[in-house]
Amino acid sequence: MDTDTPSRRPDPTPAAGTLPSDRSVPVLEACAVDVDFGSVRALSGASISIAEGEWVAITGPSGSGKSTLLQLFAALDRPTRGTVRFRGADLAGHVRLDRYRRTQIGLVFQLHNLLPHLDAVRNVEVAMFGTRVGARERRLRALELLDLVELADQAGRRPPELSGGERQRVAIARALANDPGVVLADEPTGSLDPASVDNVMDVLARLHRDEATTIVMVTHDLEVAGAADRVVHCESGRLIENERQGAP
Amino acid sequence: MSFVGLIFHNLSTRRVRTALTALAVAISVMAVVTLGVVTQSLKSSAAEVLAAGNSDFTVAQRSVSDVINSVVTDTQVRAIAGTPGVKSAVGVLIATIRIDADHPLFLQIGATPETLTPFGVTILTGRAFTASAPQEVILGWQAAQDLHKRVGDELVLDGTPFTIVGTYSTNQVFADTGLMMPLVTLQARERKPGTVTLAVVQVSHGSNIEGVRRTIERASPNLATVRQANEFGRVDRNLQFLEAARTGALIIALVIGVIIVMNTMLLSFVERIREFGLLRAVGWSRARLLGLVFGEAIGISFLGAGVGVGLSFVVMIGLERFSPLRGIFHAQLSASLFWTALYSAITIGVLAALYPSARAALLRPGVALRRE
């Protein structure tokens, strides 16, 4: 039995260089969320609300729970207590979380998580299985996305033949395969050299600016976090700081 | 890239894993196919004993362990011949003899010269033996080739020299790899005076064959009539045992195959946990993941079926040359062999994929992605 998935964002494409005007409807919310892994509490009473088109950076030391929060938003894990909502709907009520992951969000992982036996274009295509897009269209779309991340000439290369930055950009292209309204990026610049960091951040910035994509980015790098609209700090499983960039 | 293309791509880029799993399937397929062919061949060889001759049906002792041990008395043969509707009933005695290490179960058929034609014998070279010349034999054409004998040569049986006066064909492998001699000679050598192994019956034109069979069986309850291959078990319990042994061996071969392939696939599953977690994370449904694992299993099954049939050929060629089976085992290859291989391989592949694919589908993506 399929449960209605919350509708896609209503095309909130803003003018270039501006933020979406309507920030009243949270696209993602965590309400008093606890997550326990055995006897370890990874998140404790975490609450956060992320608006449409917002770019939020979640910072904090290793083991502070920031990646766990991202996994909850991606419906990869379930909270022990509390609720996680997408556009007001509790994710726990979704039978078809796979559809939610496929159509509403795009995931970028710290360790690239590309399939090593598939070349770059196939790694992007793989995210489009299960949609109504045909094989030829999938290939064209994947090539377009690789072009977007400036890797069109690397389409036939497998991950071991790509640099760290290139792999991360392939991962971003894959995250965008189904035109999601939200990109969830877990340490997208972790383990990258400065030039690659700039490349990746440039792609994310363009997405945010040109497509009004909502971005939730986990990073331990405060300089990288500075690109976001808002920085939320995570410490020992608690969201203890919530600051808006550029606020007086 | 299509979904099927992805399946083939996965198989082709993981060659060692694919080859090893396919080999495990192939070994099971080889066992299944070879067992099937061997038992079918042995059944056919045994059945040919009963099917010899231009008969409408054959009469033998009911439920003996081996049809060669069947005993039908001359009196019973005469009674059968006198049954209303019977045109002719000829008795033949069948025995085996060791000629040398290559021919441990050489077939001897004892018959009267006048029954050779009703028995389906065609003389190819020389002539038939005569009833008055007890040291004469005729050789099946395959036996003559195998023993390098010709008309006029001598053949020694248990120290007694016999003259080969002709070669014959019955169009049945089992009979053509043996010899024929006068009935009384073989009865004397086997110390079975007045008895035969089988009675080969022809029914008069227009008579009801089934009715004649029922009449004979009612008159002699210890006898059974056999008309079709599936009835041979009525007189030869070995055929029933052979069939039961074959079924048991097939089940064991399949179970072993499933366990080996499942073990290989489980190892592969552990190695691919992160991959499965990643596919779930990018939106793959459980059903699609199941489809991927089963698709790969079926692809491997096809490969295993092909390799298994090839291995079966090699084994069967070896068995045909294996001296204890010479003259008894004749590999009969048919289209059904390939279907058997395919069914077996897909059964093994699908059953072996059930547990690993269920585990893959039930993985929580977050847990899978945390696995190192």
Structural features, described:
The complex is a heterodimer of chains A (248) and B (372). Chain A is built from 7 helices and 10 strands. The termini of chain A are far apart. Chain A has a single domain (28-244), classed as 3-Layer(aba) Sandwich (Rossmann fold), CATH 3.40.50. In chain A, strands 6-7-8-3-9-10 form a 6-stranded mixed beta sheet. A 4-stranded antiparallel beta sheet of chain A has the order 2-1-4-5, covered by helices on one side. Chain A is globular and about 45 Å long. Chain A has helices at residues 66-73, 97-103, 120-125, 135-148, 164-175, 194-211, 222-225; strands spanning 26-37, 40-51, 55-59, 81-86, 89-90, 105-108, 182-186, 214-218, 230-235, 238-244. In chain B, strand 3 and strand 4 (106-111) form a beta hairpin. Chain B starts with a helix and ends with a helix. Chain B has 12 helices and 12 strands. Chain B has helices spanning 3-13, 15-51, 74-81, 141-147, 173-176, 183-189, 209-219, 237-271, 273-281, 286-320, 335-362, 365-370, and strands at residues 57-61, 72-73, 86-97, 106-111, 122-126, 136-140, 154-157, 160-169, 179-182, 195-196, 198-203, 223-226. In chain B, strands 1, 3, 4, 5, 6, 7, 8, 9, 11 and 12 form a 10-stranded mixed beta sheet that branches. Chain B has a two-stranded antiparallel ribbon with strand order 2-10. The interface between A and B is medium-sized, with 28 and 26 residues.
